[in-house]
Fold each of these.
Amino acid sequence: MVNLRSKPRLLETFLESPLAGLLPWIAMAILVGPDRFEVAVCTALGLSLLFTFLGHKRGTSFKLLELFDLAYFGTLAVIGLVASDSLITWLEQWAGEMTNIALVVFAFGSILIRNPFTLQYAREQAPEELWNTPIFYRVNRNITLVWGGAFAVNALVGLFADVVLGEPNGFWTGWIIPLGTLLFAVAFTEWYPDYVSAREAAAAGDTSEPIPPWTGLIDFLPPFVTAVGIAMLVTDNDPDWVAILLIVIGAVSGIAMRQYSNKPESAILER
């Protein structure tokens, strides 16, 4: 059996996962906007410092992503302190795209040098004998690709909102689409290692480890769709009938997915 990571241990697992290094970027990308540059940068830098401190208090090694976090957000914080009002206004408009593009370059750059940034996190959750195996590299390369793709999509959505729509803080382009892509990346990060482990075990003749169903990739969708509908009603984003339809779709799809997930494994595999 190929165990690509250990069982979750709440805070410890979070600090040992790439999510700890990526959360400051997610916060920055979501929070930045008109009159929110300082808040977004301080939040991202604060999270970077907090997670780095907590991680190394537990004896974990320094990660490239952590250092990149501190350097990038620290630089933006210094710029924010000395920048003119016109520069702050410019940063409020474009910092979201800058942040996404910076992380895209970092993510794909780490793949180009054959050192996907998630490798450093994964090595703290997997047995040492797996660190240099092709499957271990492939899993982390693909997870890194998904995160790079998510931030690339968000950068393009942000550019479209700013350049074409002229609405950098739009409901869909500024909040819903970026959050949805990031939630998918989070789901993939949690689902994919277990999926590959189970498939490799099954190929080796060990069927004791169940293969996670593909629904694990979209478990977040029903509550997310419902939340979007509620947010539309609360923020008066018309039309109301679309908001109500989203709430209904989210509730019904959630029930359907739970029923699908509760089916016997044999019934699912026959599909």
Amino acid sequence: MSNKACDAGRRDFLKAAAAVVTLAPGVTLMSIPAAAAPRPADQPASATQRWGLLVDTTRCTTDCTACVSACRTENGISGHGRPATDPQWIRKIELRNETTGATHSLPMMCQHCANPPCVDVCPTGASFKRADGIVLVDRHTCIGCRYCMMACPYKARSFVHEDVEDQRPDVPRGVGTVEGCNLCVARVDAGGLPACVESCRSNGNGAMLFGDLNDPKSEIAQRVKTYATTQLRADLGLDTGVRYQGI
């Protein structure tokens, strides 16, 4: 065998070895660096997929806001120094167990419910759910009634009170409309990761995992199957796409 062939084989082996992640004794998963292959622009979202997020709260710390900062940068969100009215697509919250006193810091955003109450109450159809589980707002048909904000049990939507400047091409925003986390849908459709997940990996504690909940071979599906995870307000039967581990 030639030296070139040996080098190529060695590189392939190292790539395969680096892709294996050990979660627990006897449990190994393939680590996928990107969400999926890009979705062709002329193809609709498919119900064969269910995009979701898993947050490991044992890794998420109170002092880390990497996900929040990345979201604001990616989506062109800027405040005016008025917390009561400034938009928040993702925010950090603290949960406290009243029995044990244990506290958990975690990011809160649109939970991308399979049965989203925001969609149910929207009078114009501006709030809608794609076939792959991503919940979105069509700014062109949103009339700013804010019914969806009242219906959301996670307080995950914001109303745009003031004119928006320097908008990002992939994320049109406008005064008088409602908005919220869209899982960085343009990135996902291009085969990438949401900005919060990417930043959590590089600038945070690696607490966030994104992937296809419907794919039994995906890392997120394997993690949900292997470890106990929680849906916030599971009693509402919304079947959220965002799950939390460690609470």
Amino acid sequence: MRLLIIEDDLEAAGYIQKGLSEAGHLVDHAADGEVGLEMARSADYDVLVVDRMLPLRDGLSVISTLREDAVATPVLILSALGDVDHRVEGLQAGGDDYLTKPYAFAELLARVEALARRRDPEAVQTNLQVGDLEMDLLARTVRRAGINILLQPREFRLLEYLMKNANQVVTRTMLLEKVWDYHFDPQTNVIDVHVSRLRAKIDKEFSTPLLHTVRGAGYRLQA
């Protein structure tokens, strides 16, 4: 998922950004309401995480303006103001969920992913399978032939994209855009390195390879 955090507390924003990135998501950050509003308008995010008290433009104003502009991206509001009236006010402004500070990061992550599933019906699919390779998107686990395979967040995201496009050729450009969020060629071997690491984990100890290189085109995951 691609997420935007609008939070002026840089320490809190860094904590959230680090945790969401480690969970395999692409995360952008804006430190005030004006910048956050423009970023939310100009890019396609899956979920916005918006602090209520922001400089230049408060969080509820950001949300209500986005709704007036027909931007329907789900919004999780973060606020130290947690009584019923404040929560109702946040939801009436166009927020989809409201989380009171202080909060546990695990709950924030669960709420963000729940909002993304609500927006995208395809995201309701929580289990992927190609041959004897299985992925649980909720538990974030991968197994092949019943054996657990430990993946780093970027490896998990790469495999998730390959599994969702199983039996199809996935080009390097597609991977750069969908897995790394690059809309240009960084002129590095980042894809080769990650594909090599992933192949070592899902194929090396098994008799039948699943991850195939299509020369001059890209890669294909196929049983």
